[in-house]
Amino acid sequence: MVLELCIIFFFIALVYSSAGFGGGSSYLALMALWGVGFQLMKSTALLCNIVVVLGGVYHFWKNGHLPMKKALQLSLVSVPLAFVGSYLPMKQATFFLILGIALTVAALLMCIRFFFQKTYTIREQPRGLYGIIGGAIGFLSGMTGIGGGIYLAPVLRLGQYDTAKNIAGLSSFFILVNSISGLLGQAAKGAIIVEWSFTLPLIIAVIAGGQIGARLSAAALKPRWVEAATALLILYAGGRMLLSHQ
User: Which family does it belong to (predicted)?
Assistant: First the structure.
């Protein structure tokens, strides 16, 4: 089981990191389908998220695609709310229902942008609005056990917040800080469960995939087609999660 998951996690990290994501949504969906324990998969998904986007943040920043002022604006409220969302007690059935709905909505937003947003010009943004949006997404990310970039990126793209690659960089940073905050929330309630014989090979696989994906995004891949592939992946993950946990 671990070897199969390592191979799949490698390719998920490669594709997701090229769009600035960590892949936590698909890690959770796959581990749920493989019957991994509820708390073990939440902790494992957050750890995999962190190691993937850590490299992504560096590469996006190095290539000038991480505007720090905007990154801090989006994350200032989200980080404490991600901690709160992660700390709240939640039944397994409720968790999968919320995650499945959130992923499906995020995928549909990405599809709407892909098919209907024909022109793209960066707009002047209302001051403070995206800080509030970031806070709400941070809380949701804490509840669902992922970094939140998969929710944030479609909103930023539809709002024409920044360039495609800058949004990928912003999403990486957002996922990193909120995944750390979510992991701390789990630690605060004593819910972190890690089995290193299971978790460590997966971490190594996503580090390798994430490094390749981050470099491809900065150098070669077309963001539009990366987004399309990512939308299909998370739509599949969200749909399978809802169908598997009715």
Answer: Belongs to the 4-toluene sulfonate uptake permease (TSUP) (TC 2.A.102) family.
Give the dihedral sign, CA 58/63/67/68. Answer: positive
The two structure tokens encoding residue 73 = 């604006």
pLDDT tens digits, 164-182: 788 888 999 999 999 999 9
Q: How many domains does one find in the chain? A: 1
Identify the band that residue 147 occupies on the pLDDT scale cut at 50, 70 and 90. Answer: confident
Quote the CA–CA distance of 228 and 230 in Å, as a whole number: 5
DSSP assignment of the chain equals -HHHHHHHHHHHHHHHHHTT---HHHHHHHHHHTT--HHHHHHHHHHHHHHHHHHHHHHHHHTT---HHHHHHHHTTHHHHHHHHHHS---HHHHHHHHHHHHHHHHHHHHHHHHH-------PPPTTHHHHHHHHHHHHHHHHTS-SHHHHHHHHHHTT-S-HHHHHHHHHHHHHHHHHHHHHHHHHTT-----HHHHHHHHHHHHHHHHHHHHHHHHT--HHHHHHHHHHHHHHHHHHHHHHT-
In terms of pLDDT, which residue wins out, 60 or 188?
188
126 falls in which pLDDT band (50, 70, 90)?
confident
Contacts for 85 with CB less than 8 Å, ≥ 6 apart: 138, 139, 140, 141, 142, 143, 144, 182, 185
Domain holding 214, by residue range, is 2-244
Nearest to 43 by CA among 56, 27, 55, 57: 27
Distance CA 144, CA 85 (A): 8
